[in-house]
Amino acid sequence: MKWKPFTAGILLAASAVVVPAAGPATAAPPAAALFVATNGNDDNPGTLAAPLASIQRAVDLAQPGHTIYLRGGTYAPSSNIQLLADGTSSQPITLRNHRNERVIIDGENMPHTPAPVGGSIPRPQRGAIHIEGDWWRLIGLEIINGPYGIFGLDVNNGVFERLVTRDNYESGLHIQGSSSNNQIINLDAYGNRDPRKNGESADGLAIKEGSGTGNVVRGARLWNNSDDGLDYWMFSSPIRTEASLAWGNGFNRWNLPDYTGDGNGFKLGGNQVAADHTVRNSMAWNNAVGGFIDNNNPGQHRIERNTAWNNPGAGFDFSRSTSTLTGNLAVGNGTNVSLGANSHGSGNSWDLGGSWSLASTNPATITGPRTATGAIPSSTFLRPANKAPVGACFQ
Fold it and tell me: Keywords in UniProt for this one (predicted)?
């Protein structure tokens, strides 16, 4: 019997699964747009009135400057969707939902969902969406039950916006290799787990084992993943992370044997690979171990106006780097801060001293539905009751 996933986080309404039937590859692409629908046909020209059936067919037809619009519904292909062609700076290729329709790409029928304990996933089969092309924009999609949600290899100048990657059998969104100038905007990644590695590998967002400048993460919410919320393991170039949240990571919600999930909110590297990351205006709470951690990345990190609350390990652990921490708030953690010999800072709650009461410890609003623009909702959650300009602010 196939191992069935535990759906973590917010329960989402189920849609009927329609497995697209592959048809002969005869249709020529329209001038600038291709449409795909669960009741389409791959013999169709890919117009709004006569859509294609399979996402891969549309991807294969797309040229620089094209937009692929997916109509609402659940798509459950038996092999992963591969984005291998390149757009250009003036003509990116876009794969997105049509208007505000809910589009789910379900990878449960793909191989390696899950891979066996100790097994491996061939690189081309990683990701319900596997991307190696440059200048792609992925917008407004929900990716579930895949062998990784989205897996990017040597991907540059990509935009990943308003995506949901949940309940995948590896990390929700994973980028590695030579990858530069990618923007990850308003991502929700939760409930991702990796039975093959006993929970040690599946993060909400992973940018790992590579290099490349100009990568930015903004407005991400990363929760209830088996390993870490965010993981920059052995990525040797700076990444800027802003206005993001990580909570509930590292707990064994799936009864995986010999569980080894790490349980940090924001893990900024590892294995003594140096990169100078910046994290601003972000929050980590209720993770299994830590909030913000350098994880033996000896770089010069800038950690500014962040909040760590109720993590049983360290709220801020930058004891193995040369980091500057400014205006951060740590309350109710096992250890609020560990700076070691070389990290320093000013204006943090531990510098200012005293006790810190919080305006709200109820996360219901900030973890609830996003705004119409995809932003994280405004909330007084974890703001200092005295309104001091310390810690993250989502107001």
Answer: Calcium, Lyase, Metal-binding, Secreted, Signal
Distance CA 246, CA 266 (A): 7
pLDDT in tens, 270-284: 999 999 999 999 999
CATH 2.160.20.10 fits 107-352, yes or no: yes
CATH number for the segment(s) 19-82 = 3.30.1910
Sign of the dihedral through C-alpha 138, 86, 39, 151: negative
Question: Which residues have a Cβ under 8 Å from the Cβ of 306 and sit 6 or more positions away?
Answer: 279, 280, 281, 282, 283, 284, 292, 316, 328, 329, 391, 392
Tens-digit pLDDT profile for residues 93-111: 999 999 999 999 999 999 9
Is the whole model's pTM more than 0.85, yes or no?
Answer: yes
Domain segments of the chain as ranges: 19-82, 107-352
Q: Closest by alpha carbon to 381, among 395, 190, 221?
A: 395
Q: Which residues pair with 284 in a beta bridge?
A: 246, 308
Torsion, Cα 307 311 313 319, to 10 degrees, reads -10
